[in-house]
Design goal:
The complex is a heterotrimer of chains A (240), B (306) and C (293). Chain A has 240 residues and is an alpha/beta fold. Helices cover 37% and strands 25% of the residues of chain A. Chain C has a single domain, classed as ABC transporter involved in vitamin B12 uptake, BtuC, CATH 1.10.3470. The longest helix of chain C is centred in the N-terminal third of the chain and has 31 residues. The chains are: A alpha/beta (240), B mainly alpha (306), C mainly alpha (293). Chains in contact: A-B, B-C. At the B-C interface, helix 5, helix 12 and helix 14 of B face helix 3, helix 4, helix 9 and helix 11 of C.
Chain lengths: 240, 306, 293
């Protein structure tokens, strides 16, 4: 935990309803600048919904979200992105007819006003190791490459906070190791991260600061080891 | 990138020169005008359908709004018809602004709602209670300002404008953002694209082109009825011309409109049902065998289509 | 007051007929999630077939119902197998089917012009005799009553099929979720073909009786009928066949009120209704899929 003392993201009492169902039911969390926070919880506990609400894909129904001291609550996605938050998807959503380079360029042009565009594109492609396929149409990439393209697109918008949704799902062991190294390198460039993950070993390799969600609310915060000793956490994970 | 702009520019110049010179060799000005009209409309549909994926089945609404906006300005204000054609374009943009909420609908729902909107506009304009403003069903008579040559060259200017807009979209970051919206709105907005604004701009540009076409048509024809300028056929022809050539490119819709409108002129005017039959089969064949149009044949052969 | 009562009763009868007009479009949408843009043209074609049977063979429209139904059922099969499986496999079934059925509507319109010319055709309402009938002191032509009874019979048939037959239960499963139905071993392809044909049959029956409610038929009447039908099924509930009846009734009563009290603006009603419902009540009436962002 490399708390620099400054809170980058402050969430309080967040609510998201789908019809009568409260997918988020009062969750709150603070994330310090430069940290990686793991986000765990059983299926349906609201992890992905939380990512969707923070990134503006879903509109929240209550609570507050502050980023860098300013509210991003209910802002549309593109504004949230320009404030410095971006995310990846568990199942990649590529822009099928655009090439890798065009996709990343779009993000560099529209997602940020900082920096030299060409340099931003080059760096993003380099970090995720897609330089070799930069002129390939997204539809022609492998599943793993499409995930990397999603990450590169997010990086090209120069985020301060990156929300990573189940990046390990559907990838092989070697790929997992490579990705955890990649995420640590990204963190070392000064980007804060919330990493949603089922795979607890994967989270353990990245951080000792884990938030466990249940039923749209907070259950626990601490290290994986502490979580394993916590009766409530054990119950929600094993009780299913 | 610069090379692509030059290729687009040469297409535009070629088309412009052809229509500047053709009247000297070919006396059927009305055919040439209508051909330019459909080239322009096909590029207008291309802006919204080719780049954002919204199929404007009620595209004729903008055409009619332009024809009537321009004609009403000529009748009431007695200003230069050329200015009125631009006002016609603005009238179409105003119609487009009213219809922006329709862009929240997707796919076929948008297409049908847009069709309904164009029919509603037609019934408003053609309603006998609107006689003081629109002449209701009795039509517009602009014979006092009739000037076929001026109308012809105005249409040429409109066509060049439409081609420039498409060439810009085809080769710019803005166009890239529209294509991204067409593929996946969420991914586009997470790349920082203001989806609502970008698609509204495309929508209004598309409306503007149709409105200018409508204004030029009104001036060139001088006498027209609401049933002519709000005919569903205009939407349908335009969409199929654009689809046949291949949307998302500058040259595709031009090619489609050129081939099919010429054919229409050849067999369609004397025996419309033969053309309609051919046309119906063509649409079915297109969907089943060539959904991306003629341009896609070239693109599969790795040929760049401007 | 008399006008008011007349308007309500006429609106209900008109609405029952328009429920039938929308029904075929809605069951096809329910199963295939495709909008049959040639729906109005199938209604038109049905009316021309009935006209021909009446005018040249002297067959009463009521007797024509099973004949026309059989013809359209047999017409539906080749159309289904020629187009629909390919469309379902295509990259954008919703949009491409929309365009393809539009092409089909053009072909149908052209063929009808070939065979019948570009004229209006009608069957006189005296085909059922010149008697009238009276409800609450309001007199209506007997043809309206017969039309309503046929439409109610068709609704009854659809209800019976969906609720009380094995195929019908399977059909409801396909309507609810095509992929799950496929996995659970239902012959989705066969049901789709059957429902597609049923949709055309229902459209053609609406066509037979359109003479008595709407008036003369002409080859280019299809587009407007498709739009009206779409307004009705959106009003009722997209993909829910029995909701169509509700949509038809709302539409029928609204049209009659407009015609009685604001006749010069009556024609615009279906279009305005369609847009208003799609924009303002999409979750309840169109479902989530219709809107995004």
């Amino acid at each position: 935990m490399s708390h620099s003392g400054k809170e980058l993201l402050k969430i309080k009492g967040l609510v998201k309803k789908f019809g009568g169902f409260r997918a988020l039911n009062g969750i709150g969390m603070d994330v310090g600048e430069g940290c990686i926070v793991g986000l765990a919880g059983p299926n349906g506990s609201g992890k992905t919904t939380l990512i969707n609400v923070i990134s503006g894909v879903y509109r929240p129904d209550g609570g507050s979200i502050e980023f860098c001291g300013r509210s991003v609550y209910k802002l549309p996605s593109h504004k949230i992105v320009r404030r410095g938050i971006n995310r990846t998807f568990q199942v990649p959503r590529p822009l099928s007819s655009l090439t890798v380079r065009e996709t990343v360029k779009l993000a560099a042009v529209y997602g940020t006003c900082e920096g030299n565009k060409e340099e931003t594109i080059r760096q993003a492609l380099e970090i995720v190791e897609l330089e070799g396929v930069k002129d390939v149409v997204s539809a022609g990439l492998t599943f793993a490459q499409q995930k990397m393209l999603g990450l590169a697109t997010a990086l090209a918008t120069k985020p301060k906070l990156l929300l990573i949704d189940e990046i390990a799902a559907g990838l092989s062991h070697q790929e997992l190791f490579k990705i955890s190294q990649m995420l640590l390198r990204i963190r070392n460039t000064g980007i804060t991260m919330i990493v949603v993950e089922h795979h607890l070993g994967f989270i353990d390799a990245l951080t000792s600061d884990v938030v466990v969600m249940n039923a749209g609310g907070n259950l626990f915060r601490g290290s994986i080891q502490e979580a394993a000793q916590n009766d409530e956490v054990v119950e929600v994970f094993l009780g299913r | 990138m610069r090379r692509r702009y030059l290729q687009a520019l040469s297409v535009i110049i070629l088309v412009a020169v052809v229509f500047l010179l053709l009247p000297r060799f070919y006396s059927n000005q009305s055919f040439l005008f209508n051909l330019m009209l459909y080239l322009g409309l096909a590029e207008g549909v291309n802006i919204i359908y080719g780049f954002t994926g919204y199929l404007p089945f009620g595209y004729v609404g903008f055409f009619g709004a332009g024809a009537y906006g321009s004609a009403i300005a000529i009748t009431f204000w007695h200003i230069s018809p050329f200015v009125c054609v631009i006002l016609g374009g603005m009238a179409a943009v105003a119609t487009g602004i009213v219809l922006i909420p329709l862009l929240r609908l997707s796919g076929a729902y948008f297409a049908i709602a847009n069709l309904a909107a164009s029919q509603a506009l037609y019934l408003i304009v053609a309603n006998p209670t609107m006689e003081k403003i629109t002449q209701g069903p009795y039509g517009i008579d602009l014979s006092s300002v009739y000037n076929a040559d001026a109308g012809y060259y105005t249409m040429l200017a409109v066509l060049v404008f439409a081609m420039v807009v498409v060439a810009y979209i085809r080769n710019s970051d803005f166009g890239l953002s529209l294509l991204a919206i067409k593929e996946d709105r969420v991914t586009a907005s997470l790349a920082g694209v203001n989806v609502v604004r970008a698609r509204s701009i495309a929508w209004m540009l598309s409306a503007f082109v149709a409105g200018l076409c409508g204004g030029a048509f009104g001036w060139f024809t001088a006498v027209f009825y609401p049933s002519t300028v709000f005919s569903l056929d205009v939407s349908v022809f335009t969409i199929v011309f654009a689809l046949f050539g291949g949307v998302g490119t500058l040259a595709g819709p031009l090619l489609g409109a050129l081939l099919l409108y010429s054919m229409y002129n050849f067999i369609g005017i004397s025996t419309p049902q033969y053309f309609q039959l051919f046309y119906g089969f063509l649409i079915i064949g297109l969907v089943l065998f060539l959904p991306d149009g003629v341009a896609s044949i070239l693109q599969k052969g790795k040929v760049y289509v401007p | 007051m008399n006008l008011f009562v007349y308007t309500i009763i006429a609106g209900i009868m008109y609405g029952i007929f328009f429920g039938l007009v929308g029904m075929g479009l809605n069951i096809i949408f329910g199963v295939l999630k495709m909008i049959n843009l040639a729906h109005g043209d199938f209604i038109m074609l049905g009316s021309f077939l009935a006209y021909w049977l009446y005018g040249f063979l002297g067959i009463n429209p009521l007797v024509a119902v099973p004949i026309v139904a059989a013809v359209f059922f047999l017409l539906g099969l080749p159309l289904y197998y020629a187009f629909v499986p390919r469309l379902i496999k295509s990259k954008d079934p919703e949009m491409l089917s929309f365009i393809l059925f539009f092409g089909l509507s053009q072909v149908m319109e052209a063929l009808v012009v070939f065979f019948f010319g570009n004229n209006q055709r009608s069957i006189p309402s005296t085909a059922f005799g010149s008697a009238g009938f009276t409800i609450f002191g309001q007199r209506f032509p007997i043809a309206w009553l017969i039309t309503c009874l046929v439409a109610l019979g068709a609704f009854g048939f659809v209800y019976w099929y969906l609720q009380h037959t094995r195929m019908g239960r399977a059909t409801r499963a396909v309507m609810a979720n095509r992929d799950e139905a496929l996995v659970s071993g239902i012959d989705v392809e066969r049901i789709s073909a059957l429902v597609f044909c049923m949709g055309l049959v229902l459209a053609s029956i609406a066509g037979i009786f359109s003479f008595f409610v709407i008036g003369a038929s002409y080859p280019s009447m299809g587009a407007e009928l498709t739009t009206v039908s779409f307004a009705i099924i959106v009003l009722g509930s997209l993909g829910d066949p029995l909701g169509t009846i509700l949509g038809g009734l709302i539409y029928g009563v609204a049209v009659m009120f407009m015609q009685s009290y604001f006749s010069s603006w009556a024609e615009i009603l279906p279009y305005v209704l369609l847009i208003a419902v799609m924009l303002f009540r999409p979750e309840g009436l169109v479902g989530k899929a219709a809107r995004s962002a």
